[in-house]
Amino acid sequence: MRMNNLLVVCLLGVGLVADVVVASPASELRMLAQTKISLQQAIDAAQRHQGGQALEASIDDESFKPVYEVSIVKDNRVFDVWVDGVDGKVLGVREDVKD
């Protein structure tokens, strides 16, 4: 019985953590409504800044303000470029080194 209670607590804890980490479609839509530039403009800004070709782009679901995350491929490497969804300025770049 005690083991079952522990399992339920663990599963509830995992569910609570998942709710914090994963953005809901509704929150992404609210974030999108706050943008002043289009997804295409964000892609263009990221490609101009980093060079290369866009692979994918979306609203960054880990940000508290409207930011687009654009993945750019250049020289067989992938870079994540963050573009401000209001003014179109590049906020940062990081090489995506997922194994």
Question: Secondary-structure blueprint of this entry?
Answer:
Blueprint: H1 2-21, H2 25-33, H3 39-50, E1 53-59, E2 67-74, E3 77-84, E4 90-95
Antiparallel strand pairs: 1-2, 2-3, 3-4
What does this molecule look like?
With 99 residues, this protein is α+β, with helices and mostly antiparallel strands. It has one domain: Nuclear Transport Factor 2, Chain: A (Roll). It is 41% helix and 29% strand. The protein has 3 helices and 4 strands; from the N terminus they run H-H-H-E-E-E-E. It has helices spanning 2-21, 25-33, 39-50; strands spanning 53-59, 67-74, 77-84, 90-95. A 4-stranded antiparallel sheet has the order 1-2-3-4. Strand 2 and strand 3 form a beta hairpin. The chain is globular and about 35 Å long. Residues 1-21 have low confidence and may be disordered.
Q: Spatial order of the strands in the main sheet?
A: 1-2-3-4
Number of strands: 4
**What's the N-to-C terminus distance?**
40 Å
Structural class: alpha+beta
Helix content: 40-55%
- Helices, by number, come to 3
The average pLDDT value, as a whole number, equals 81
Largest sheet: 4 strands, antiparallel
Shape category: globular
- For the CA atoms, what is the radius of gyration? 18 Å
Q: Which segments are poorly predicted (pLDDT under 50) over 5 or more consecutive residues? A: 1-21
The CATH topology label is: Nuclear Transport Factor 2, Chain: A
CATH architecture classification: Roll
Pfam family, one: PepSY
Domain PepSY: 36-93
Protein name: PepSY domain-containing protein
InterPro entries: PepSY (IPR025711)
